[in-house]
Amino acid sequence: MNNEEKANQKPLHITQPVLPSYEGQAFDMVLHAWLSRFAGWLSPAAFGLAMFDWSAHLSLFPAKRMDIAKRAQIENFQLFFHMLDNLLKKEEPISAHCRSGDKRFKNESWNMFPFSLYAQMFLLSEKYSNELTSHMRGVSSHHQHVINFMARQMLDMFSPSNIPWMNPEVIEKTYNQNGTNFVKGFHNFIEDINLNLSNLPPMGTEQFKVGENVAVTPGKVIFRNRLIELIQYSPTTDKVYAEPILIVPAWIMKYYILDLSPHNSMVKYLVSQGHTVFMISWKNPGSEDRDLGLEDYAELGVMNALDVINDIIPETKIHAVGYCIGGTLLSIVAAAMAEKSDDRLKTITIFAGQVDFKTAGELMLFMDESEISYLEDIMWEKGYLDGTQMAGAFSMLHSTDLIWSRIIHDYHMGEREPMIDLIAWDYDTTRLPYKMHSEYLRSLFLNNDLVQGRFKLHGKRVALPDITAPIFSVSTLTDHVAPWRSVYRIHLYTKTDITFVLTTGGHNAGIVSEPGHANRKYQLLTRKKEAKHITSDAWKDKAPYFDGSWWLAWHDWLANYSEEKVKPPSMGNPKKGYDILCDAPGTYVLQK
Q: Are 572 and 312 in contact (CB under 8 A)?
């Protein structure tokens, strides 16, 4: 019996999908799925409630409205006369402040009249729009965020940077190229439209092919079940650390972000340092997998992988690593294992993963009962959430950088940014099963059950304080998915040694931070289990800075918790049914 047949004989904990509870509910679900083609993730009901909450309170604060209008009038008059005074100088630096991270008006040409006037007027409009939509007493915090987000989206459409004849950079490019930039831009636009209609990724992604120039670290698939393929990477050193590493990547992304190009592959780095590495490659689920839940991801994913590794390398503890939601799942599994006195985990490493979702980043914008019910109806028809819908939500959250700046660069300037491996990987989207995603959003994001002690695995509540294995937790400074202060809250819920790292970069780029990567630095500090808690701000003030890649510090930490080096283990274990099924990267990662 091969390992695939063996795995599929194991009982699965799968429940039936949620069925319509009243006559005609199916029609309502189909209607909501149809509406999503126009509204995206945002529930019309949720937006209506937010709009009513905000507008009702705004109408009850006439003095606040008058105060804002008065200050806006004064500042606009000051701006007008200030511009008149400096008109002959032909230059006036922008005094109104841009949002943090807003690079639209950084170019020096925006300080020239009349472009400085355009920018100043827009930034003042943005300032007062923000005041009207984010500082209204009585309005729920969630509704204020929704209204502020929608107001910002609408206002950004009319930014002078988006209008060719008001953007000095576009005007200069047009003058220098005699307008050919618009010809090139129109060609780029038609190209993108054709790709979009054909459901193909953007130009340039085709040069990155899985198994050819990305995800090329040598290895073998030695186990497969209906949810995962387990890859064992080939050793490159004569001896390896006794304890193997199991990596649990997120299933909202393809695993090979940790095995990108040879120069920035984390897997290749670990193997070169003498580690035996196993990687879970998740299946890209289809309609037939609609009933797979979080328990199935724990059992068929993490627990099956641990069992296989223990069969190949018996009586040896394992360094477990989880990325993003994979880190959350690993924390759940580790707590459940600890409750049963299962001590197979030597250490736990979590990359940009949260256990407390109270302040879980900008995705909380989409998290309330109305939004989740609406999203469940969108997923109900097909049995999954398509990856392009999630990608669209992330683009909306950062529309200035991910939508408008691309329109300016590709269509107005007529240029194309060269494609890189990380961006190409980002377009290789995955689907999320109906049941799992519903459980994830409700249990973790909406109800925060894990840290409240309500989350159950196989009918038993899991408690994070049961975890005793030392933890290495990595967060990134500009992470909009898992903000570093949210990641830091793991200190509140565990009683073990925690080495916490805060590195430059975002949710993905901060993790793919290989040695030699330019302009990388990080902070690192260890809290011993008997030490008192310090706040995130106090930690940031106290933790020392280091230049370079945090991978080096992590390897030293792993080595410190490892035994002496031994001969590399065999690839798979045919005697126990773990034959070599195929070469890495396997088959699941290729599923579209």
A: yes
Q: Of 128, 158, 188, which residue sits at a domain end?
A: 158
Rounded to 5 degrees, φ, ψ at 62 are -65, -35
* pTM, 2 dp: 0.88
Q: Is residue 20 part of a domain?
A: no
Q: Is residue 142 part of a domain?
A: yes
Catalytic residue among 215, 228, 324, 372: 324
Query: How much is the CA Rg of the chain, to the nearest whole Å?
Result: 26
Do 360 and 486 form a contact (C-beta atoms < 8 A)?
A: yes
Query: 295 in a domain, yes or no?
Result: yes
The secondary structure of 25-79 as a DSSP string is: HHHHHHHHHHHHHHHTTS-HHHHHHHHHHHHHHHHT-HHHHHHHHHHHHHHHHHH
Q: List for the chain the helix, strand, coil content (%; round to 5).
A: 50, 15, 35
Q: Is 324 an annotated catalytic residue?
A: yes
Task: Domain count for the chain, please give it.
Answer: 2
Give 435-474 pLDDT, tens digit per residue.
Answer: 999 999 999 988 999 999 999 998 899 999 999 999 999 9
Measured CA to CA, the distance from residue 195 to residue 29 in angstroms comes to 30
Shared-domain flag, residues 476 and 570 = yes
Range of the domain at 478: 219-383+429-590
**Tens digit of each residue's pLDDT (9 = 90 or more) over 22-46:** 666 666 766 766 666 666 667 778 8
